[in-house]
Amino acid sequence: MIKIDSNTKKTLMDLYVKKGIGLEGNITKLIDTENDEDFKNYLKDCETKDGDKRKKRLDMTKKIQKQNEELVTLNQKNEKMMEDLQSTLKETEEQRVKIETQNEELIAWREENEKTYKEK
After folding, report:
1. Are 39 and 10 in contact (CB under 8 A)?
2. What span, in angstroms and rounded, lies between the C-alpha atoms of 57 and 43?
3. Where does the pLDDT of residue 120 fall: very low under 50, low under 70, confident under 90, or very high at 90 and above?
4. What is the DSSP code string of the chain?
5. For residue 62, what are the domain limits?
6. What is the mean pLDDT of the chain?
7. 21-65 pLDDT, tens digit each
8. Cα separation of 65 and 59, whole Å?
């Protein structure tokens, strides 16, 4: 156990009361309270506050990880949709070219038929 003199205990408790800054982590479990109830309560408050902060950070980390997983999934879906759109666009362009070619052939055929009809 770590022993702390009464002056340091008072300084730590004052810092906690005035600025909300307390000891964190496992160090609070190693400090000998020497039957000082106020300091014992201070350490208990520090442990509780530290536990709450850790839980809050863990919850935030889990939330961010879940959002990241969702974003990755959405990104994959978007990439698939883009590939499908590109494929559809290519097919549409090919069909347009095919139709234009057929249209030109039909126009040429019609003109040839009209010439043949006029010659008769």
Report:
1. no
2. 21
3. low
4. -EE--HHHHHHHHHHHHHH-----TTHHHHEE-TT-HHHHHHHHHHHHHHHHHHHHHHHHHHHHHHHHHHHHHHHHHHHHHHHHHHHHHHHHHHHHHHHHHHHHHHHHHHHHHHHHHHH-
5. 2-119
6. 94
7. 999 999 998 999 888 999 999 999 999 999 999 999 999 999 999
8. 10
Residue that is written with structure tokens 């002056």 in the block: 7
**Is 47 in contact with 26 (CB distance < 8 Å)?**
no
pTM score > 0.70 for this model?
A: no
Tens of pLDDT, residue by residue over 57-109, are 999 999 999 999 999 999 999 999 999 999 999 999 999 999 999 999 999 99
Choose among 52, 42, 51: nearest CA to 21: 42
CA distances from 88 to 74, 83, 85 (A): 21, 9, 5
Nearest Cα to 30, choosing from 46, 15, 16, 17? Answer: 46
Residue labelled with tokens 């234009």: 100
Number of domains within the chain: 1
